[in-house]
Design brief:
Blueprint: H1 8-30, E1 38-44, H2 49-53, H3 61-68, E2 73-75, E3 81-92, E4 98-109, E5 115-124, E6 127-130, E7 135-136, H4 141-153
Antiparallel strand pairs: 1-3, 2-3, 3-4, 4-5, 5-6, 6-7
Length: 164
Amino acid sequence: MRLRVLQPTAIRRAPALAALFSSLAVAACSSMPVNSFTQTLHRGYVLDEQALQQVPIGSSQEQVLLVLGTPSTVATLSGEAFYYISQKARQTAFFKPELVDQRVLVVYFSADRRVIRIANYGMQDGKVFDFIGRTTVAGGSDISMVGNMLKNMGNLNPFGVGRE
């Protein structure tokens, strides 16, 4: 049996090649922009502004269903209302997703099932804010329900990430 003896040049080449490959790997990582590792996660109803404009005040409930689709939930507190609930989060690489925005689009109907009001609620400065009417909303049973939805959506675990 013949033993192979390493040549001195091969021994000197191995660390040099390892250093070359590791420096190339580090250079490749540092040249990639941070945004390439960031993704936006959407959950629930994704609002299309053009579709919303196809639902003017006075539209029928059927037209709302055709244009906006099936609502996330329906309420009959004081008249009927369709709720379209959405969340948007941003995740960078392997880090926990950060909640960026959460909205509740509410389409209110009259007794004859016609649209009487549309509101797009979200949180602004810790208060329920209507992004269509550009107003902070006063209290009421429906508003407190929307406020609870918005506050509790942040406590849910929508993207499957463990809480600490």
